[in-house]
Design a protein that fits this description.
Strand content: 25-35%
CATH class of the largest domain: Alpha Beta
Order of helices and strands: EHEEEEEEHEEEEEEEEHEEHHHHHH
Number of strands: 17
CATH topology of the largest domain: FAD/NAD(P)-binding domain
Largest sheet: 7 strands, mixed
Protein name: Lycopene beta-cyclase
Shape: globular
Helix content: 25-40%
Number of helices: 9
Organism: Sediminibacterium ginsengisoli
Number of domains: 3
CATH architecture of the largest domain: 3-Layer(bba) Sandwich
């Protein structure tokens, strides 16, 4: 580093920015490089929870708060409980994640952190990137951006647009009510009047679980409604009358595949800004890990990071948009669609499909699980929208 110039700047200190930083710190090639991490907040609270599945432990295994070997999906037509092998479903609390990366970054002399808001960034004629903040200007040969800045949709498209909105309580009960080895991924045995609606139950012990009420719809609900629905689910579905709320979380995730501005040769978008949130599910953690791992491997090989391929991405966008069209046009059928997929396919096939790693044979088997006519019409609409 010379003055306010760095080898790399990471704009945004959330999941994507810190994942990239952690992977860089594990490579000897970056030990003598200067890296500036910019974020408007010093993240030291448990502001979110990330869940994902994987076969083998990755670099954040030390901060996995809990994991499950079995999972269940429930609806009015029945329940299915399945073994996730060779996968495990895992939960990471953001506070543990933040502390883990910041502690390791503090041990590297070349890493600096700046609490500031990025207001602009642009590439100069010589390829250097100028990053403007409310604390001054900084320069780098390569900038990784996970902020909304510079990563706005190119245009509003005819693609389906929904929101995934949710609220969750981490509760503690007086007696053992939960199976800590089994996660409930979707329980549709709640009213579907607001759109595709389900409850997510992640037990971390016999007496503690994260219970999250989730809706796919075009508008969010008044805040008190989420609390009322969680309370109703606990009483009527789980038979829990007495509980203590240990923690609350809430969020809204856009479910769309709007095309974003492409990364420039020296400004690389990552995280939500880089399209690493799967539109049909809201899952992002594993996609962020894949992308940041690929970036670091390319840098180590001295290859351009703007040319990185994301296998299966375009196919997945097409499939996501078809599903979103069905959910938007027929919200009352969401529970039937997901229940059929989980009851008629082995879990490994479903997880490959959701990870954008499925084969054509996998895809055909998944498609045969759902209402063919409904999805064929949605596929035709999607093709017409692209013309």
């Amino acid at each position: 580093m010379t003055g306010n110039r760095y080898d790399y700047i990471i704009a945004g200190g959330g999941c994507a920015g810190l994942s990239l930083l952690m992977r860089m710190l594990q490579q000897d090639q970056f030990r003598n490089k200067s890296i500036l991490l910019i974020d408007p907040q010093h993240k030291n609270t448990n502001d979110k929870t990330w869940c994902f599945w994987e076969k083998e432990p990755d670099i954040f295994e030390p901060v996995v708060f809990h994991s499950w070997c079995k999972a269940g999906v429930h609806s009015d037509t029945g329940s299915v409980i399945f073994d996730l092998a060779p996968y495990r479903y895992k939960m990471i609390r953001s506070i543990d994640f933040y502390e883990y990366v910041h502690t390791r970054a503090a041990a590297h002399a070349g890493v600096s952190a700046l609490q500031a808001t990025v207001t602009d960034m642009h590439q100069l004629d010589n390829g250097t990137v100028n990053v403007q903040t409310d604390q001054g200007a900084f320069y780098a040969d390569l900038v990784f951006n996970s902020t909304p800045l510079q990563a706005q949709p190119v245009k509003q498209t005819q693609m389906p647009r929904l929101l995934q909105h949710f609220k969750g309580w981490l509760i503690e009960t007086e007696t053992g009510c939960f199976d800590a080895e089994t996660a409930t991924l979707m329980d549709f045995r709640v009213s579907q009047e607001q759109g595709t609606t389900f409850v997510y139950v992640l037990p971390v012990s016999e007496k503690q679980a994260l219970v999250e009420y989730t809706v796919f719809s075009e508008t969010v609900l008044p805040g008190h409604v989420y609390d009322e629905r969680i309370e109703s689910y606990l009483r009527n579905n789980l038979g829990i009358q007495n509980r203590k709320i240990l923690h609350e979380e809430a969020g809204v995730i856009p479910m769309n595949n709007d095309p974003y501005n492409n990364s420039q040769s020296s400004i690389i978008h990552i995280g939500t800004a880089g399209g690493q949130v799967k539109a049909s599910t809201g899952y992002a953690f594993r996609f962020i890990q894949k992308k940041t791992k690929a970036i670091v491997e390319a840098l180590v090989r001295n290859e351009p990071v703007t040319q990185l391929k994301e296998p299966g991405k375009q196919k997945a966008i097409f499939y996501d948009n078809i599903l979103l069209r069905v959910l938007k046009q027929h919200p009352q059928l969401g529970s039937i669609v997901f229940s059929r997929i989980f009851s008629r396919n082995p879990p490994a096939r479903i997880l490959r499909f959701l990870d954008n790693e499925s084969s054509l044979a996998d895809d055909l088997q998944i498609m045969c699980s759902v209402q063919a006519g409904l999805f064929t019409r949605a596929a035709f609409q999607e093709l017409m929208a692209r013309m």
